[in-house]
Write a structure and sequence with these properties.
The complex is a heterodimer of chains A (about 280) and B (about 260). By secondary structure, chain A is of the alpha/beta class. Chain A is built from 6 helices and 14 strands. In chain A, about 25% of the residues lie in helices and about 25% in strands. Classes of the chains: A alpha/beta (about 280), B alpha+beta (about 260).
Chain lengths: ~280, ~260
Amino acid sequence: MAYQAEISRKNPGCFLFLVDQSESMEDPFAGGDAGKKKAEELATILNKLLHNLCIRCAKSDSIYDYFHVGVLGYSDESCKPALGGELSGRSLVPISELASKPLRIEERTKQSDDGAGGVMDQTVKFPVWFDPYWKGGTPMCAALKDATKLVETWCQEHPNGFPPIVINLTDGEATDGDLVAEARKLTAVSGEDGSVLLFNIHLSSTAGPSIELPGTASKLPDQHAKALFEASSTLTPFMVARATELGLPAGENSRGFIFNAQPLHVIHFLDIGTRPANVRLR
Amino acid sequence: MNHATAATAANECDIKVFCCPKSGNSVEEYEDAWAHRPTRTPTGLRVAVADGATESSFAKLWAMLLAESYVRSDVAGEEFFARLQPARRLWRRRLAGRPLPWFASEKAGQGAFAALLGLQIDAHANRWTALAVGDCCLLQVDDVGKGMRVLTAFPLQESSQFTMSPYLIGSRSDGEPLHERIHISKGSLRDGDMLLLATDAVAAWLLKQHEDGRPLWKWLYRKLRTPESFAAMVAYGRTHGLRNDDCTLVRVIHHDAPVAAKER
């Protein structure tokens, strides 16, 4: 049966993020605060996803390399590794290296429970790996092609591992070809434990209710959303069960597609051991 | 770590503890805990197993504190959980002032989480009381050597009830109240009854073997004696459906106290 491989430090999982940095990402994001650009929302989401992945793998005073993580940015007719600073030019890095090498660590204030029924201001570290950027066209097909090469290599090097998960964050307007056809080539790459999974996070300028993990395209608002839905993989049974536990409306036909919503639960779709149900996602 | 400890508490129970870490992990990374202690009032024994959650930090320390707190406590009901402040304080103190990188500090701030199963045996009254939060399980097997009936599976009864996201006990007290997650059960004991306290992976697998008509009760009663035999069982299990996780099994065999002892 596919998608059963245990994820461990010896047999790590792989998350590859594809991020749209095209000019259209400068437009306003319809799913959040007024005046926020899609590129800003994307940077917020990606930093939160990377942050949460690091926290998930943190173990006492160290961090376990349960995952390797990569970020490819696509804009201006090209696709290239998008992590900066000391990770510049790297396609995939172990999570421990990602955690220790953000671009910068900001300090932010958040309100938290004071343990006596009230709230208090608490200063928290907020690592930033990725800043908003936009320029030129949307070579999404080129990004999917590059991702295909990367995951092919990963699967050759980890033939018994859990298949890589590719997460594409975009406003959906590819300018260099048929994204569904390229997505099919990507998800045809496979190892012993199954095929590569592609999830799409659609940050749209089209107003409308958030849609998470739909089973059909019938309620999606435009052809870009429908194409991205078409390109998205069906969730595995474990993912459906985990999504349900997290309070999401997932069913057996659910696809890894999210429209104008926070996708933080996606990184919990892979099992690395007992997860306390009483820990809330941030 | 593949080891067993043996003890006879209050002359009425034989106890043996077996444990081993998740395959691929070192002994230091084993995050289950266990403890047992004879009691005077009532004359008998308190036993606990705890299972620190993989996806939480400093969970081994928290599991040890929970197991020790239970066996040193004198309450067997829900009120036990209202007395966890010293254990929580100790957990915080052990971490205080420790220089941690940002991710470790944030994870520690969420607290550690663990499942706990506590068992109090009143040897003279031949009664037991069990307390559980999470998915560590108590299995009571009767008629050992004959019909081998499973009298109790607590708090989970079937292998299909185990999940990867149980509600657990947090080392911080500001989380969701445990109230609705506490399970309590009571039962009686007969001479020769076997009580097994197991962390989730072992418990789920033993129940599955039982459901599939391949129960291991007889083997556990008669043949399980050494760390090596437990390691061999776990190794076999891991190729036959036992989830790769830390494994802990405490076996208690109850012997009805002699009349003279009861009168003392």
